[in-house]
Amino acid sequence: MNEFIQTLSLGGPGPSIAIKDTIDIAGYATTAASRALADTPPAQQHAEVVARLVMAGWRIVGKANMHELAFGMTGINDYTGTPQNPQDATRIPGGSSSGSAAAVGLKLADAALGTDTGGSIRGPAACCGVLGLKPTFGRVSRHGVAPRESSLDCVGPFAREMSMLVAAMHAITADFDTHAARAWLGACKVGIVQADATREISAAVARAADVAGCTAHATQLAGLAAAFDAGLAVINAETSRAFGHLVESGKLGADLDVRLRAAVKTTGAQLDAAEQIRRQFTAAVNQALDSVDVLILPTLPALPITLDEARGGASVIAMSSLIRPFNLSGHPALSVPLPIAGSSLKAGLQIVGRKGQDEQVCAIAARFEAALAA
Questions:
Q1: Is the torsion defined by CA of 146, 151, 155, 156 positive or negative?
Q2: Cα 327 to Cα 135: distance, rounded to the nearest angstrom
Q3: Of residues 374, 363, 373, the one with CA closest to residue 190
Q4: Domain span including residue 322
Q5: Which segments constitute the Amidase domain (predicted)?
Q6: Which of 45, 220, 222, 374 is a good FRET partner for 79, with 20 to 30 A between their CA atoms?
Q7: pTM for the whole thing?
Q8: Rg of the chain over CA atoms, in angstroms?
Q9: Under 8 Å CB-to-CB from 288, ≥6 apart: which residues?
Q10: What's the domain count of the chain?
C-alpha cells in the first residue's frame, strides 16, 4: 500500500485523516518521502494543524506518501513507491500530495492534509477524483511544515464530500466559519476564465455553471501565462534554498536531482521580475472578482497522463498551467470533481475566490457538488 509511508493511530474517535509527510507529527520523522532525509530525527512536537486536529478529536491514521520533497507533479516516487490513482490505476496520481489524494479517493481516510505550492493539492485532487482546497495564503498555519519558509505554500484539506472538507478546515483554522461555508443559496454569479484546456473539459466547465444555476459570463484573466512562469521562478528559488544542499548527498531521485540543479540557477533578476508579475496578476484577479462571486476554470488542462508516459519522459509541467498562478496571487482555490461527457474519469473544476473568503468558495463548491451529483 503506497498511499502511506507509515500507518499510525493517534488522536480521538473522530473522522480519520492522513497527514502529508512534510507536516510534523511528534515522535515521527518528517522525511518528505526522500531517501536523503531518511535519517531525520523524529519531530519534537506536532505541527500546529496536527495539534488542532488532535485537540478536536480527529484520528490520524498515517503519514501520507508524496512526490519527493514536494517538488513534482506526477506523484511518482521510486523510493517510497507510487500511490494508486483511484480513478485509473494506469494513470499518475498527481503531485506532490499524491498519497493524500489517493488515500481519500481509495477510502483509506475520511480526509487528508496536503500542501500546495504550485498546485500540489488541487492537481492530485483532480487526478484522483476528490475535493481539494488551497486556502488563502496565510489563512492556515504552516508552523511545523516543510519547507519552513515559503511565499507560495499553503496547507489544505482533501475529502470526498464538501461537508467533510469544511469540517477539516474548521478543525485546522481558528476562525473558519462553518455556517458561512454551507451550500450557497440564491443567486450566484461566476466568471468563466478563458483557459487553454481540452474541448471536453472546457465544455464540462460551462455545463457545470449551467446545471448549478449560476449566471455565467466569459472572463479574460490578464497575465495567466506570465503568472505561471513567475510562479515557477519563485518555487525554484525557494525550493533550492530549502533543499538544494541535498544534491550533494547523492541520495535524491533522478528527477529531483535534475530539477534542483536547474533551480539553483534562478537569478535575482528573474525573482525581481516574478515579484512584479505577482503584484500585477494579484491585482488582475482582484479586479476580475469585483463583478462576480467566484471565478471558475479547469483545474488541469487535460486528463492525467499514464504512468508509462510519465516514466517515458512526457513533460508534465503544463499540468500546473491553470493552478500555479493562484499560488503566486494567494487567492483561495478549490478543485471539485467534474464529470466529462463520454468518459468514466472525472476532471477538476477549479473555483477561485477573494482572499480571505475561503468559506464562500466552499459554499459555492457545495452548490456545484450537489448540482453535478444530481
A1: negative
A2: 10
A3: 363
A4: 4-373
A5: 17-362
A6: 45
A7: 0.98
A8: 19
A9: 191, 193, 219, 221, 295
A10: 1
Q: Which amino acid is it at 306?
A: T
Contacts of 317 (CB under 8 A, 6+ apart): 73, 232
Please give the Cα distance from 154 to 174 (Å, whole number). Answer: 15
CA distance 241 to 323: 23
Beta strands at 294-298 and 189-193: parallel, antiparallel or unpaired? parallel
Q: What is the pLDDT along the chain (374 residues), one digit of tens a residue?
A: 899 999 999 999 999 999 999 999 999 999 999 999 999 999 999 999 999 999 999 999 999 999 999 999 999 999 999 999 999 999 999 999 999 999 999 999 999 999 999 999 999 999 999 999 999 999 999 999 999 999 999 999 999 999 999 999 999 999 999 999 998 999 999 999 999 999 999 999 999 999 999 999 999 999 999 999 999 999 999 999 999 999 999 999 999 999 999 999 999 999 999 999 999 999 999 999 999 999 999 999 999 999 999 999 999 999 999 999 999 999 999 999 999 999 999 999 999 999 999 999 999 999 999 999 97
Residue 162 is given by DSSP the state H
Which secondary structure element, helix H or strand E, spans residue 216, and what is its range? strand 215-219
Cell readout for 95 is 503531485
Helix residue ranges per DSSP H, 56-106: 98-105
Which residue in this structure is represented by grid cell 502511506? 4
| CA-based end-to-end distance of the chain | 33
CATH number at residue 65: 3.90.1300.10
CA separation for the pair 333, 162 (Å, rounded): 14
Cell numbers that stand for 63 in this block: 503519514
